[in-house]
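Q: Structure tokens for this one, please.
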Amino acid sequence: MLRLKILASTTPLLLAWLVAGIGPSTGAKPCIAFDQTSVQIATTPWKAQSFVSFTQDPAAATVRVQIVDSPELADFAVIDDAETPNESSCSVTAATQFIAITSVASAATPVIYLSRDDGADYRIFVRSKTFTFQDAAALVVGAHRSPTHLAAALL
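A: Here is the predicted structure, written as tokens:
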């Protein structure tokens, strides 16, 4: 009976903790920092201001992102050997733009086709222990679809 009382008394606190977004941290998420702001992969979908999705069908894509083999060929390159992202370079501020990757695309959601084919809108190079190709593509597309001060910093 005591276990049930403890569970009943702690459950509302746990739910409030998770809903407030201060739940258990899984570590820093991939981000791009510049000037006094950043674009970051959201830790929870309800924190995101922008969403992107991915497709395997090039005809369904609204944005094409090419994976290139050299940082010199890329519009955006991520190269790191760190086990975890540098949290100090991507501190969360009021200007931080959060991007979430969703499997349900709407008309306003960019649909990314990620491939090695030429003719892409963006080219990325990723050699990282913390970023995936999808993370990099989501951040680049999300940053260019966000307010102009973020997009201008990446041009």
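A few notes: Residues 16-26, 147-155 have pLDDT under 50 and may be disordered. Residues 66 and 123 are 5 Å apart (CA to CA).
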